Amino acid sequence: MHTGPSTRNLDGDVSCGTRIAVAIATSGRPVIVGQTISLLAQQSRLPDRILVCPAQESDIDAVSLPPQVEIVKSSRGLPKQRNALLRACEGIDIVVFFDDDFFPHELYLAEIEDLFRRNRDVAMATGDIIADGILGPGLEPREALAMLAAVTSLDPEQISIVPNGYGCNMTVRMRPVRDLGLEFDEALPLYGWLEDVDFSKRLAQAGRIVKSNRLRGVHLGIKGGRTSGFRLGYSQVANPVYLARKGTLERNRAIKQVIRNLLANLVKVGWPEPWVDRRGRLIGNVQAGFDALRGRLHPERILSF
Questions:
Q1: Is the overall model pTM greater than 0.85, yes or no?
Q2: Stretch(es) of the chain classified as CATH 3.90.550.10
Q3: CA 221, CA 99: separation in Å to the nearest integer?
Q4: 42: exposed, middle or buried (Cβ count in 10 Å: 0-12, 13-18, 19+)
Q5: Residue 1 pLDDT exceeds 80
Q6: Topology of domain 7-219, per CATH?
Q7: Quick one: which of 224, 225, 222, 257 has its CA closest to 243?
């Protein structure tokens, strides 16, 4: 593991010996998270720390994990688990949040370190992923590994400003996170749904949010371990409305998000994809609509269903 000491310029930015932690929240996927962790040993720039936060003990096979992996305890819920990971990152300069089913290219951490060193005004970075299984039935690990193996070289760097990081591969500079006292919003329970958008918006006041084409990886989009279709459908309405009221999601974007999800569930409920509970999502959308009319709409309501 890389263990060089951190030194800082007078402006507080890391100048050498950058300390990088990989932080993974996981729930219900002990096998796949083990494979993700094993890939970190293949990084050309090894992480200084690897922290894993399971929703419950059965979510990881602690016996088979490498000895350097640190287990962080938390109650269930992606925002809660990621907050526990943030609190455990004392002395860390950069935290790389990977989903438990995100397979990074072997140069990912080296590219992150280089990007943050050369761009001191970047507060968050996210990658240009090779494939995203969340958009379909999901990808098998062997498929993802084959895609990564096919990337024999990286394209010339292209960095673009984006409104938010993508939670499956989202890197934050810890100095502004600490200075602003930022945490993920725990009022977005369980799977979270747009917690990355909310966190990005609040961090954006400290620096640029960027996307780099040299941060490569594959998001498997494994379906196991996710929340129920009904609860997700409720969150598809409640969370955008909550964030719009909070001011971390533009009103027009929130309206478009709700309408897009509702129409997708309506159109496809008769012929749903095998991997999507369209009926459950639609019922959740409708329940959220009723709650909105009664003034009871809130993300945490899913915990009562």
A1: yes
A2: 7-219
A3: 9
A4: exposed
A5: no
A6: Spore Coat Polysaccharide Biosynthesis Protein SpsA; Chain A (3.90.550)
A7: 257
